Amino acid sequence: MVLLVPLITVFMVKLSHARTHSLRYFRLGVSDPGHGVPEFISVGYVDSHPITTYDSVTRQKEPRAPWMAENLAPDHWERYTQLLRGWQQMFKVELRRLQRHYNHSEPPLVRISRKEFFPGITTLFCRAHGFYPPEISMIWKKNGEELVQEVDYGDILPSGDGTYQTWVSVELDPQSRDIYSCHVEHCGLHVVLQGHQESESILLVMKAVFGAIVLTIVLAGVGFLAWRRRPREQNGVVYPSTRIHECSSPS
Known about the structure:
By secondary structure, the chain is of the alpha+beta class. The protein has helices at residues 66-71, 74-103, 200-228; strands spanning 4-14, 20-30, 40-46, 49-55, 62-63, 109-118, 121-131, 137-142, 145-146, 151-153, 157-158, 164-172, 179-186, 189-196, 232-234, 237-239. It folds into 2 domains: 4-103, Murine Class I Major Histocompatibility Complex, H2-DB, Chain A, domain 1, CATH 3.30.500; 109-200, Immunoglobulin-like (Sandwich). It contains 3 helices and 16 strands. Strands 1-2-3-4-5 form a 5-stranded antiparallel beta sheet. Strands 6, 7, 10, 11 and 12 form a 5-stranded antiparallel beta sheet that branches. The longest helix is centred in the middle third of the chain and has 30 residues, at 74-103. Residues 197-210 and 232-251 have low confidence and may be disordered. One of its GO terms (biological process) is antigen processing and presentation of peptide antigen via MHC class I.
């Protein structure tokens, strides 16, 4: 990608009541100059007539109108040559900064959440944040088919740290068992997250069953430890459990 940084300076001079003249300077920096194209160019005009030129090849400010060469001393050309060399270096630095900025990208962080705004109406949100540049594609699919009419799209907004954020949402049928997936594409990166639709009653039953299983495992573990640590019984006499150490008898 070739970046151009133009700069135009305009001065208006009124020499008489009948006519006004303009003095304009055009400066242009090119990030990737080709054959015959200088990296930096500066041209001065009075009205539409060129009067001075400078480029990164000659590195000299030169007159383009005879009256300019006749009326300005050599130190003028040397002084402005040094000034334009400074402009040339500044354009180079700014072009590099712009190249780093536009070549830089941050992938999106994507997550799915669900919210019930009204009884029986559940909405799935797919949110992306922390991405740059701001161009991003986000769609919802139901059972593998793209949804269009049922989807709401949020604006792509700046996050305040140089990145952007946005969202897409879709309303769910509480009675269905459809599978929804959010597809995000950004700078060649493709992210897919699935949100499985389940009714709230099914979710509550699943949580209760899971809790019962966990409780059963905990109680079984406690019972097993208690059984291992029980006192031993021989011939009707109860002995506490002891640890046997093997020792060698003295010779």
